[in-house]
Amino acid sequence: MRSAVVFGILAVLGSPWSASAESPSAKPPSPPPIEAYGKLPAITDVSLSPAGDKMVSISEVGGERYILLRAVTGANLFAIPIQDRKVRNISWVDNSHILVDVSQTDHWYFDTNNSEFWSTVAIDIDKKTSKVLFDKNSKFPIYHFGVVATRVINGKPYAFVSNVPLEGVSGGSRLHSATNSYYTRDYPDLWKLDLTNDDVTLAAGGSQGVDDWVVAPDGTIAAFANLDTRQAVWRLFHGQQMIMSQTSTRLQTELQGLGRTPNSVLVYDQAGQDKLIEIRTDGKTTVLSNSEPLTGVFHSHATGLLIGLEFGDQQVSFFDPLLQARATAALRPFLKSSGDRRITIVSFTDDLNEVVLHTGGDGDSGTYYLVNLTTHRADIIDNDYPDVPDQQVGAVREVAYKASDGFDLDGVLTLPPGSSGKNLPVVILPHGGPIGIVDRPGFDWLAQAFASRGYAVFQPNYRGSGGHGAAYRDAGFGEFGRKMLSDISDGLDALARSGVVDRHRACIVGFSYGGYAAMAGVTVQQGLYRCAVAGSGLSDLPTMLDWVERRYGAPSASLTFWREAMGPTVPGAPPLKSISPIAYAARADAPILLIHGQDDSVVPLEQSQIMYSALKSVGKPVEFIQTKSEDHWLSREDTRVATLKAAVAFVEKYDPVN
Questions:
Q1: Greater model confidence, 170 or 447
Q2: How far apart are the first and last CA of the chain?
């Protein structure tokens, strides 16, 4: 479905951001309501304009969510209502144009399964107008495969977008007509869109396996990547010349944009050892980081060139010594008083005289700051969870422990506010992914919600997690339901031995792979938990692999990843059925709550439906909640709140604090 304008621009409401209040000094007598944690953050996606005179964010104003544009001096300029749309990203093109990426769940084009389709809205700040990219061009669908780059060329703003023209789609003349059922080719082209007049020109023709481009500052193509899934080879080209070739069964090589010069590009190679490589178009290479877990790259607004790297919280490295000095100066006051807070740079002007920081963790439910190094001020922009007073944020710390086989592991422990940290009931909260995702100390809405009710919460970084280097991450492949699973329960044992938690008062809660771990924790494993809450979890691994193969084809990068992670292609790995919770439904030793979004496009709803039927058929205590119009990521506030309420109530029922 399309419309001429996705968002209508309204006059702005409310007071200027500089008036955001500090947290109350008095500790509330009781914890905030669960809704305070389950609501979407009151502010996200804060980004400074290139000139540093304006900022944009997703903000709650008067109980409604808006894309809010404001001047850094404090005045609100205008607001754009989001309503029920899923905004995924906001970025500046120049000081007068913003791009807003929006996704929608649908099931046409590929098959009857849900897919997440992306479109982009361009906002002209000066004219106070908005338009959907490709909406005025009958040759293209509005849904595309990603904005590859934005550039300002001869003073004009452009977006470079990966898309398949309608001539590559079967039947019909417009998207969403009854005859538009599938693509006749499975690769996109790169198109150059003039944001001032809607002109669309071909920037680079696509071909089989081409999956990414890097756009030079002048709008030419600096390089493009080709992925051969049959031979498991990733190749990088400049023009017709191949300048890099990388073989890896795990297909872990990707482009990261331009390098430090217009004739260089960045490649992040995670095959064997994490390396960030700068490759010039003549093939000469420079390794910019080796073995350090890379968490971000910083590019210039003006040129798109690489200016810095991020290697974790508070670990930033800018190539220009002046920029590095300014980044250090912006972070320094927060580091001195950080405790176990997480501090990150989220936006900045090219000269780093203005920086937006985000903090969260001990005594901080999430705060955005604008740091101005010229005026030497650090002002609060807004708080993520204003209804959760800082005094009600549980203490957060990182805990190191060893797996039963001696593997060094860590995780994040959140304690109830004011707790002594002794002999507590515990919620084990493994993250999803599973490969490459990591939990770090900070404010986690789900962990803090359980902590507010009196539970210790532990988020284990089982082997396979990211942020610890290649060896830690790669150790997870083939250990999906084996050591990755026992790493989680080994964390519970370690906390019990230290006296922090009561070993016999534990529940496990998780989503995606965490949902699998929750189900497996009371079926594949035994005698560990009083209850399990599994959100969007995998219950039958062979069925899940079949679904991935039908959806993406064989070979495909997705199928390769899941096979490597689950174990069928790893020597010595057990049969998938032997680590599937559904195979052990009859011996489930604790009540299970299943929660799954009907619009989930990552793990099909069927995975929870068949587990529910299996448990019911053998008389095991099980509840099942299907959340309407919800995806894999709990993107909608009403269903996120409902999910949290149900999960907390279930844990309190089967493992009460008192």
A1: 447
A2: 51
